[in-house]
Specification:
504 residues, alpha+beta, 7-stranded antiparallel beta sheet, 6-stranded antiparallel beta sheet, 42% helix, globular
C-alpha cells in the first residue's frame, strides 16, 4: 500500500492545500442565491429608508461567506488516507482510508463546465446520511480530477504497485436517442408534472383564480361539446404534458450516456446540462439488479443497476449501469458485468404453495375489504351505484397483481451467484456473487412464521445494499445459505431440522 500511495498524483496532494482558485467565482454566487429572499427584503427596506448602505451590506455578507468557504476548505492525501477540512468557527475534518474508496463521481454543473472545473465525490460506504459527512472536493480542474480518480480507484489492498499503465477505454454501451420512447413509462414524468402543477396551483391561488376553477360552477361545457368530451380532452392534454416532461427529464439526465471499461473499473458518463461521471471499481461490483417497473415491462424495457459493496441508499444513483432502455440491451450489459450468463438466464426455483397463497392474501384482502366497504355504503347510505364499478376494478386488478407476483417469485444459486426475483409493480431480479456475501439474516413476521416462511437476506460489506429472498420455506432458506457460503449458518441447521422433524 505504501508504494501505491507514492504515485505522482497522490504524492502532490500530501500537504494541505486549497481547491482551485476559480471557485472564488462560484461560492459567492451560490451564497447570493441562497440569501436571495433575505436580500430582496433588505433591498425593499433600504429603498424605503432612502439609503443604499443596507443594500450594500446585504450583498457583502453572502459574498464574504462565499470567500470564507473557499479559504477555510482544504484537503490532502497522506498516510494512506483522504482528508477534507472545512469550517471556520466549527471546524469539520473528514478522513477515510484509501482502501475504503468505493466509487468516484465527477459532477460538473453548467458554471463548473464554463470554468473548466468539476466536483470529485468520493463514495466510501459511510452509513451517515448527512450532507456534511460527504467527502466532496469542489472543485478541481477536469484533468487533475481525472488523474486523481484513476489513482484513487487503483489504490486497493489487492493492487500491484507495479501495475502497467491504464489501457484505452473499451466502449460497452453508448446512448441511443431511440431510448426516449421508454421515458413516458417511468415515474419521472409524474414527479416532474406534480412539481409543475403544484407550482401552478400556488400561482393560481396567489392570483385569486381558484373561484373560477371550482367544479361546482362547471354547469356547462367549456367547448360547447358534452362535458365528458372536455374531461377526456383534459386527460389527453395531461398525458401529453406528463410524457413531454418525462422525455425532457430523460434527455437532461442521460444525454451523452456512455458505459466504458478500462483500468479495472467501469466508467459511466451522462448529463446534458450537468454532466456526471461515475467510476466503479471491479473489486467493488458484487452483482447486478435488473429493474422492471410495470410501465417499462409493458413496453419491453428495463433499467440495470450495479450492486456495489459499501454503497448507501443515497448513492444508489451512482450505480445505474443502463438507464431505461430495451430489456435485451440491459441484460446484455448485465451479462458482461457479471462475466457469466447463468444468473440472468437460468430458470428460478419456486417458493411453494404457502408463498403463493401469501401473494394472493396480501393483494386481495385489502382490495376485498375496500369493495365490501363501498358495497355497504351504497346499500346503507343510498350512495350512487356506479361507485361499485371502481371498487370492482380495484378487486380485479389486485387479482392480476397477485397472480403476477406469484409467477415472479423465485430464486436460484447458479455460477456462484445468489439470484432472487420478486415483485409485480416493480419487479426486480438481483444477482449477487457469493464471495461478497458476509452474512445472512433470516427475518420472519408473525404471519410468515404461521406459514413456515422466512425472508432470507444476503448482506454485503458496508453500506446498505443487500439481496432479499422473500417468503422462502425455513429449511430451504437455511439450505440455500449453507450451499452458497458453507458453514456460515450451520448452527441453525440442527435447530430447524429438529423443529420440522416428524417427531416434533
Amino acid at each position: 500500500m505504501t508504494e501505491a500511495v507514492s504515485r505522482p498524483e497522490l504524492a502532490r496532494d500530501h500537504d494541505w492545500q486549497r481547491l482551485d482558485p476559480r471557485m472564488l467565482l462560484v461560492h459567492p454566487v451560490r451564497e447570493l442565491l441562497r440569501f436571495l429572499p433575505v436580500l430582496l427584503g433588505v433591498f425593499v427596506a433600504g429603498t424605503a429608508s432612502g439609503g443604499e448602505p443596507w443594500q450594500l451590506i446585504g450583498v457583502a455578507v453572502p459574498v464574504a461567506l462565499g470567500v470564507l468557504r473557499y479559504l477555510t476548505t482544504s484537503f490532502r492525501i497522506a498516510g494512506g488516507r483522504v482528508e477534507l477540512r472545512r469550517g471556520l468557527l466549527n471546524r469539520h475534518v473528514l478522513s477515510t482510508p484509501l482502501d475504503r474508496v468505493r466509487t468516484i463521481d465527477l459532477t460538473a454543473s453548467p458554471i463548473h463546465r464554463l470554468l473548466g472545473l468539476t466536483t470529485v465525490r468520493i463514495g466510501t460506504g459511510t452509513a451517515s446520511s448527512s450532507d456534511d459527512d460527504r467527502l466532496d472536493l469542489d472543485g478541481l480542474p477536469v484533468g487533475r480530477a481525472d488523474a486523481l480518480r484513476e489513482a484513487l480507484l487503483r489504490v486497493t489492498p489487492s493492487d500491484d504497485p507495479g501495475v502497467t499503465p491504464t489501457p484505452a477505454a473499451r466502449l460497452v454501451l453508448g446512448f441511443d436517442p431511440g431510448w426516449v420512447r421508454f421515458a413516458p413509462f417511468t415515474s419521472s414524468g409524474l414527479v416532474i408534472a406534480a412539481g409543475v402543477l403544484g407550482a401552478l396551483t400556488q400561482l393560481v391561488n396567489t392570483l385569486g383564480g381558484f373561484d373560477r376553477l371550482d367544479p361546482s360552477r362547471w354547469t356547462d361545457s367549456v367547448t360547447g361539446l358534452p362535458v365528458w368530451v372536455d374531461v377526456a380532452g383534459g386527460l389527453v392534454v395531461l398525458l401529453v404534458l406528463v410524457s413531454g416532461l418525462a422525455i425532457g427529464g430523460y434527455l437532461v439526465a442521460n444525454w451523452g450516456f456512455s458505459l466504458t471499461h478500462a483500468g479495472g473499473a467501469w466508467h459511466l458518463r451522462r448529463g446534458l446540462l450537468t454532466t456526471r461521471e461515475t467510476s466503479l471499481d471491479d473489486n467493488r461490483v458484487a452483482g447486478v439488479s435488473v429493474c422492471e417497473p410495470i410501465g417499462l415491462r409493458l413496453v419491453g424495457g428495463a433499467q440495470i443497476r450495479a450492486i456495489v459493496t459499501g454503497l448507501d441508499r443515497k448513492q444508489e444513483g451512482s450505480a445505474v449501469l443502463v438507464p431505461p432502455a430495451p430489456l435485451r440491451v440491459g441484460v446484455g450489459v448485465a451479462r458482461e458485468v457479471l462475466g457469466v450468463s447463468g444468473p440472468l438466464d437460468a430458470a428460478l426455483v419456486g417458493h411453494g404453495p404457502a408463498a403463493r397463497r401469501r401473494r394472493y392474501t396480501r393483494a386481495l384482502v385489502p382490495a376485498a375489504a375496500l369493495a365490501t366497504a363501498v358495497l355497504l355504503a351504497v346499500v346503507w347510505r343510498d350512495l350512487a351505484a356506479w361507485l361499485l364499478v371502481p371498487a370492482f376494478i380495484v378487486l380485479v386488478t389486485a387479482g392480476f397483481v397477485a397472480a403476477d407476483r406469484a409467477r415472479s417469485l423465485g430464486h436460484a444459486l447458479v455460477d456462484r451467484h445468489v439470484v432472487s426475483r420478486s415483485g409485480s409493480l416493480h419487479r426486480r431480479r438481483d444477482a449477487l456473487l457469493v464471495d461478497d456475501v458476509i452474512g445472512w439474516n433470516l427475518r420472519s413476521t408473525w404471519f410468515q412464521r404461521r406459514a413456515g416462511l422466512t425472508t432470507l437476506v444476503a448482506t454485503t460489506a458496508g453500506g446498505s445494499q443487500a439481496v432479499r429472498i422473500l417468503d422462502l420455506p425455513e429449511l430451504d432458506a437455511v439450505a440455500l445459505a449453507e450451499d452458497a457460503v458453507p458453514h456460515l449458518v450451520a448452527q441453525f441447521t440442527a435447530r430447524l431440522s429438529a423443529q420440522h422433524s416428524p417427531a416434533s
